[in-house]
Please model this.
Amino acid sequence: MNEHRYAARVRGVEMSGIRKLFEAGGPDAINLGIGQPDFDTPDHIKMAAITAIEEGKTGYTPNAGIPELREAICEKFARENSLAYRPEQILVTAGGSEALHLAMEALVDPGDRVLFTDPGFVSYAALAAFAGGRPEGVPLDATLHIDVEQAKEQMDGARIFVLNSPANPTGAVESEESIRALVEYANDQKVTVISDEVYEHFVYEKEHVSAARFGEDVITVNAASKTYAMTGWRVGYLAAPEDYIPEFLKVHQYAQACATSISQYAALAAYTGDQRPVEQMRQEYRARRDLLYAGLTDLGLNFPRPEGAFYMFVPMGQALIQRAVDAGVIIVPGGAFGSRAPDHARFSYATSRENLSRAIARLKALME
Ligand SMILES: Cc1ncc(COP(=O)(O)O)c(C=O)c1O
Model:
């Protein structure tokens, strides 16, 4: 076979440890490894996509997204986040992932420091590295929340601070006070904040607060993916001060042209249509969170109850994690999310209560 050459950019980055879990385990395995809703996309959203196909809305759209969707996203920001955006400040992307990617590409120069929590969502370090930046983890406190003072210290001279609340993999929801302190300090230090709010609707006690309320230099990243159970449709967006958008568009138009036309019409129905399915999903996630949390704490695994997203980040030794996986309870070792939490595992409760109960029973059998 020929020996093919690859750029250092890709050689230096590892594959995500999570994707391979899509196929993990035998037929009897219970997969708590995957971070995607197990719900189906609501019918009215599917119907909007079918109508778009039937009406021939299948060509390229404007690079920044269809005007109706950019408008609907502004209305969503006003309604849900108390933020006033104009359509010129919105860029529709292929999922939140593309929004994160193009923000990093457009903002990070070689050697720039990019901060995010460790443990944190797997993409931040990889995307910062692709852009030539220096990824840098910020440790969490004992409750798995951001240590604001520690984060502030690291912000000195940094280029980007990525905030993710509700957080993957911890399920932590940051308080308004912490978010305000982090954003105000970052912007004061000329550090741009990228606020990844893809789990904003899945909060169970605290309220979600958007970072952009507290600073001018904030790029909000969001997506239809988790909120409307639309991960495969690949539609997300970012919102930013207006002068950023043409620069982001350069990356977006050459790499992507536009988000999928049909998915944009589906997202339009999602943002403008009936919001009750979101609340139903939130309530179901909360019930699952309670079930899983009670089950794990009964087994003697002690940790603060997570407040959002659909994850639990559970302190358990690596040997126990391996035994759980061997027993068909697929969970993700903490090492997949950075270097600071090898003795934790991420449990996703985006699966049925029945599966969660079966998983707890298997763990119980292991631990007795
Ligand atoms: C914190 C976080 N941000 C962004 C994404 C990407 O979402 P999308 O599917 O919209 O690209 C994910 C997906 O798992 C995530 O967990």
In short: The chain has two domains: 8-41+276-367, 58-272.
